[in-house]
């Protein structure tokens, strides 16, 4: 059974940084593209960044140049380094395998990790 466990969120002032981690189990990790999603207050869930099994990355325009996604295949973990955070980045962040931009592969979601950016 696939499992995603997110961690690393917190409260930070605008301009600050956080590093999120996503531990994945139950799938052949190295073969899967893994994405970070977020859902802000009153908003729909959206894709933030994705990293392919080959290491290629794609970012949402709103985070390009500020966020960096990376992966450690030895530890079945994906990271999201978030710099220059803005209040509009406030959301619960989730990870999931991805079949295409904005298309999570599994219905099983983790608990997410809350990121709150104060002005």
**Extended strand count:** 11
* Net shape: globular
What is the succession of H and E elements?
A: EEEEEEEEEEE
Residue-averaged pLDDT: 96
Terminal CA distance: 40 Å
The helical percent reads under 10%
* Radius of gyration, taken over Cα atoms and rounded to an integer in Å: 13 Å
Low-pLDDT residue intervals, each spanning 5 or more residues: none
Structural class: mainly beta
Q: Percent of residues in beta strands?
A: over 45%
Biggest sheet character: 7 strands, mixed
Q: Looking at the chains present, what oligomeric state does this protein adopt? A: single chain
Number of helical segments? 0
What features would you describe in this structure?
With 119 residues, the chain is mainly β. It is 0% helix and 52% strand. The chain contains no helices and eleven strands. The strands form two sheets. Strands 2, 4, 5, 6, 9, 10 and 11 form a seven-stranded mixed sheet that branches. A hairpin with a 4-residue loop joins strand 7 and strand 8. The chain is globular and about 40 Å long.
How would you describe this structure in keywords?
119 residues; mainly beta; seven-stranded mixed sheet; four-stranded antiparallel sheet; 11 strands; globular
Outline the fold blueprint.
Layout: E1 3-7, E2 10-13, E3 18-25, E4 34-39, E5 46-51, E6 57-59, E7 67-72, E8 77-82, E9 91-100, E10 103-104, E11 113-118
Parallel strand pairs: 2-11
Antiparallel strand pairs: 1-3, 3-8, 4-5, 4-9, 5-6, 7-8, 9-10, 9-11
